[in-house]
Amino acid sequence: MGSNLGLGVDIGGSGIKGALVDLDLGVLAGERLRIDTPHPATPGAVGKVVGRLVEHFAWTGEVGLTLPAVITGGIARTAANIDPSWVGTDVRAALGKHVPGPVEVLNDADGVVLVLTFGTGIGSALFVDGRLVPNTELGHIEVGGVDGEDVAAASVKDQEGLSWVQWAKRVQRYLERLERFLWPDLIVVGGGVSKRADKWLPLIEHRTPIVPAQLQNAAGIVGAALAAAENRGY
After folding, report:
1. Is pLDDT larger for residue 98 or for residue 2?
2. Are residues 208 and 98 in the same domain?
3. What integer pLDDT is reported at residue 229 of this predicted model?
4. Would residue 116 be called left, alpha or beta, if left means φ above 0 and alpha means ψ between -120 and 50 degrees?
5. Do residue 118 and residue 100 come from a single domain?
6. Strand pairing partners for 72?
């Protein structure tokens, strides 16, 4: 085994496991230690177990942690098989109280931005830490058993003669689905309706901040030109 070691801790609903890891080879550097997850699995109770694991391995460096929760910006947004009191908790701060070194939470996805264009259909682009996730096609996420774009595209508003209030209710249902799945930090809306965002955005109840695209309906054109220039090495 190499000398480049790290300590990983996997927090689960029934057990909390820790082991030293050979970072060069990507394998365990020794036997793991498992301690039953306390019940209730509150941040304080889990933190004490993490502290015991760190002490067992006589570890003073950075600790890598996984937690069964959606985490954005260091804050737990959900809690699966752990105590609900985790929701809204600063994970690093809560667990850092119990270990001598810094804490890194592996499933902390910072900087998730979702761009949606409402037109004939619903176009989408998902950026994670500034990197584009290609071919998301999120307009086809189902809402009530049909594609989201079949009920919430701007073209549907025109075809069915929906008022802004009626259409906003459909958009709300669609956005709620995306928020549950993706937990974005920001949603940017484009397309022709972005020019009239004042008519419908205030009607949307949402957890995620939503803003109209600054380039409005021209965003797709500008983005395509910039992508072509980038590919040419401009």
Report:
1. 98
2. no
3. 47
4. beta
5. no
6. 75
Stated pTM of the model: 0.65
Residue in 51, 61, 48 with CA at minimum distance from that of residue 20: 61
- Write out the E strands in 52-111: 63-66, 71-72, 75-76, 103-105
* One domain, residues 225 and 136: yes
Nearest partner of 66 among 110, 106, 108, 20, judged by Cα: 106
Task: Tell whether the model's pLDDT for residue 234 goes beyond 90.
Answer: no
Q: Within this chain, do residues 88 and 161 fall inside the same structural domain, yes or no?
A: no
- Which of the residue ranges 115-129, 150-164, 215-229 would you say has the lowest mean pLDDT? 215-229
User: Has residue 232 got a pLDDT over 90?
Assistant: no
Residues spanned by the domain of 99: 5-105
H or E element at residue 49: helix 43-56
- Give percent of the chain above pLDDT 70: 88
Which of residues 62, 82, 105 is at a domain's end? 105
Pair (118, 215) in one structural domain: yes
Residues 120 and 188 in one domain: yes
